[in-house]
Give the backbone structure.
Amino acid sequence: MKDNQPLLESYKLEDLTLNNRVVMAPMTRNRADNSESVPTDLHVEYYKQRSGAGLIITEGSQISERAVGYINTPGIYTDAQAEAWKKVTNAVHEEGGKIFIQLWHCGRMSHPKFHDGEKPLAPSAVNPNAQSFTKDGFEDTVEPKAMSLVEIKETVQEFKKAAQKAKDAGFDGVEIHSSNGYLIHQFFNKNSNKRTDEYGGSIQNRARFFFEVIDAINEVWEETKIGVRLNPSLNEVFGIIATEESIPTFDYIIEKLNAYNLAYLHLSEPFTDVSEIDYLVSEIAKHYRPIYKGTLMINAGFDQEKGNNVIKEGNADLVSFAKLFISNPDLPNRFEKNADLAKWDEDTFYTPGSKGYTDYPKLKEETVNK
């Protein structure tokens, strides 16, 4: 059955060989329920269980205290956090798996409760009119503080320092979270970026911060160990309102990424129906495969059949799965056996403890194929 499933073929990311093309997508799970934002033994078990993925991309992990936007999310900016993540990477490597960490800055999607009452940082003082998950539940966002040039430069260095911590922790690489309405995406979008300096105005200026982050991380990691995630068709989700410049912006960014020898470009298909919106792409993989020359990973709405087809059609090299990996820790094995897939419990996506996190069973060996 492996022979006719592209998802189960191995894949080379330069000197890193993935056992299959089934990638575990980054998913916020809110299990770092301690005062230091440190991964716990539950994280070790959770990721170890899913080591059969060709590649694991961890949940978004904040690059600094200023980057926090949600309760109980892990960080990668202190020695204690790096040491805790090392237990995760060791466990995954012992099982023969590969693991990248996603570097995350929430920007305006945060709340003053995470910053001693201070406003969160953002490109401009524009409220996303969304919600942040705090200790008191989901709360409305506020007008953020427009970053000074000094704060922009400091944040670039925070990405670099977090990337170094990730290397210290034994990760195989890093993914830059430039998607889903968080800080870097906020720079891209002209509704959230009203700046008139070198970081605002033109498409090139609004993309400047992103490329500065890549270049800074490249001082720590070689390009082939850096992945980036983008969501070109995000609209009315996470505070982002698409504009007539959305397609030209992402076309420019993705074309420029060809100058780098990145591990991969990780794109999301639309989260909502954008087929009636003239200035948004409704088929992301098909649109960007001819533009991007490197390894293309695609995400959002894929199952076994669709995942195999998008690779077979040549529109992607890797497919990342999110919710299916929550309830099926051995997802590639289930694909190989064409076995039934377990259902996930949405009520436990963001709750503390092992329930809905590490208690989903693997497939029993005696299970008969469908």
The chain has one domain: 2-348.
